[in-house]
Amino acid sequence: MHLTSEEQAxxxxxxxxxxxxxxxxxxxxxxxxxxxxxIPIRSVQIAGVSYANLGEAGLEWLSEMAxxxxxxxxxxxxxxxGMDIExxxxxxxxxxxxxxxxxxxxxxxxxxxxxxxxxxxxxFGNLPCFGEHIAWAESSAVCYANSVLGARTNREGGPSAxxxxxxxxxxxxxxxxxxxxxxxxxxxxxxxxxxxxDFGALGKVIGDRIQSESSGRVPTITGIPxxxxxxxxxxxxxxxxxxGVALFHIPGITPEADCYEMPDERFHVSQHDLDSGKASLxxxxxxEVDFVSLGCPHLSLREIQRVAELLEGKRVxxxxxxxxxxxxxxxxxxxGYTAVIEAAGAxxxxxxxxxxxxxxxxxHAMATDSAKACYYAHAKNHFKTRLLNFExxxxxxxx
Length: 399
Ligand code: F3S
Description:
Blueprint: H1 5-12, H2 17-32, E1 38-40, E2 43-46, H3 51-67, E3 75-78, H4 95-110, E4 135-136, H5 139-149, H6 158-167, E5 169-171, E6 185-190, H7 196-213, E7 219-222, H8 229-243, E8 266-270, H9 271-279, E9 291-294, H10 301-311, E10 319-324, H11 326-335, H12 337-343, E11 347-350, E12 365-368, H13 371-379, E13 384-387, H14 390-398
This protein binds FE3-S4 cluster (F3S).
């Protein structure tokens, strides 16, 4: 693997211990994946921020990198943390956990990382351009950046994303290269796809099929006439969770779809497939639901506006979390949406989400509009789930 003189200097330790360790990680990854060189990047998104996932070993490693002089060389933002940094007590997070989570964030801050704590960095400033090389972790954001924005990133892990941030480069392999962005599978959808649960269920159906056959496929999906930003973020989260998909194309919607030939290999998704996929994500009755959550991935301002419209003058009777980023919450505050939502008894869970917060054992069944949240509610927190559309989720909190 060819390194420039600057990259070799980082590897030799000329810029300190942290940069040297970072370059060692990247050089090793490059050799494993057959990269011929490094490629400069413009931004990084780091996942693995919750203390619940990092634990003491992860915190120690981050502290070492900060003390070793590690400094982000490009715009670097963070995935959700394990708690709302300002409002954690109202969400039932212990002081002990809060203290550890704060130490994690301090280590990132010392390295010049922007502590935004959100899986939708593209909604508030970390918005890569078409064709731009980036190094992002967080599977839903990776899929969104590659597919919807046309930026170029592999699915980084927490350490490789931090290493890219501290050096400003990443090995040139995988989705950074034209050849690997070509579709390898044609999926035709013959079903009515309208709202987030439809898009989420579609991501599950396609993802399950890809996962059962072979990973690393790039599908071109036809039969979807229209999709909003919110639908696409939901779809990205789902197809990445269930199928490990990091890139797809949809003609008329995503920017690279027309750059490639349609692949010969093809399968259909029928209305029956979609309905079965959706039904498989509900295993709780309405009466069992004791937790309601919207915002996986983090809510946009438009979605928060809709929550405020539907809750105005009403009172929720279940624990109801609205998960979003701090910058979007700031806009909701200014627009008066926060006041309406909090007056109804719902809680903002800013900087965090229902998956990375330490809430295992606290609830029995969760209602959500997110297929990804259903997956992790089962797998991580052992909750039962109900997958409903946006309006029905809010109704569930009121009944
Ligand atoms: Fe984001 Fe948490 Fe869902 S990180 S995509 S809200 S699981």
